[in-house]
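[09:14] KT: can someone run the structure on this one? pasting the chain below
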Amino acid sequence: MRMVAICEAYGVRCELHMSGFGNLQVLGATSEDVCEYYERGLLAPGVDCDAVLPYLEEPSDPLEEDGSVRIPEAPGLGYRIVWDYVSENRVRD
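[09:31] RB: done, structure tokens below
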């Protein structure tokens, strides 16, 4: 958020690169005058931007029909974690 504040103070855009819950929350906390775009993912062979990670209930940035991405409204960053998966894959001492 400091970088966003510095960019806003100098009238410079601050565009966030890469996707994820954290970047979505920063984007939601700024105005479109500072951060306008969201980089959802890289297009490459074998890369599925809609794939849900096994430890999450849903993707971090599902694409809406109009091409937008909604900002999660759940507490914290908006993660909905599959705790059974986490428990089954813990590294034990």
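[09:33] KT: thanks! The first helix runs from residue 2 to 10.
[09:34] RB: yep, looked fine to me
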